[in-house]
Amino acid sequence: MTSSPWLRSKTPIAPPRAANPTWRTLLYAGTVTGAWAGLVSVAIYGIARLLGVPFQAEVRPDAGLTQIPWFVPLVTPFIAALIGALAATLVLGRRHARQVVLWAGGLVAVVSIAWPLLQPETVLWSTRAWLIVMHVVAWFLVVPQIARIVGDSEPRASEPRDLLTDAAR
Asked: Where are the domains of the chain?
């Protein structure tokens, strides 16, 4: 691995320090990625419903099985992405920020997958499987993008460098 810190950035040429991401950048990214994750989840929900998946789950322990409405897969990833983007602001400008966001986002995804898995026996496994697919798709669309943006704020990620000097090393 080369000693050029700008090469660790996901962008080909590191942005200037003045362009380091802020909470507004992350909120915008959370909005866009959350909206896409919600739209894809609604599409998955629609396909599964066409295939006959009932999407009945136990929302509260005392309520019994309830039909999951179509707008829940639309809104839930959007809200989760906004909360995750705001939480990612806590590591802006810190070392290993990208890895922290990737690991924390992965941990949140694993914990959120526990809800479909811990449903009572009356919930069909087809419903559980499609809910898990939606969780994985939402993670895949949101977390790596937020982590990439946060990673560009790491120390030395945006320091100006002389490319010719770095190439000679």
From this structure: 38-155
pTM as predicted: 0.80
CA–CA distance, 36 with 165 (Å, rounded to integer) = 42
Per-residue pLDDT, 34: 97
The encoded tokens of residue 132 equal 């898990």
Q: Which tokens hold the place of 92?
A: 């802006």
Kindly report, residue by residue over 55-66, the tens digit of the pLDDT: 999 887 777 888
On average, the pLDDT of the chain sits at: 86
Kindly report the three-state secondary structure assignment for every residue of the chain.
CCCCHHHHCCCCCCCCHHHCCCHHHHHHHHHHHHHHHHHHHHHHHHHHHHCCCCCEEECCCCCCEEECCCHHHHHHHHHHHHHHHHHHHHHCCCCCHHHHHHHHHHHHHHHHHHHHHCCCCCCCHHHHHHHHHHHHHHHHHHHHHHHHHHHCCCCCCCCCCCHHHHHHC
Is 22:164 a contact under the CB 8 Å cutoff? no
Q: How far apart are CA 156 and CA 103, in angstroms?
A: 22
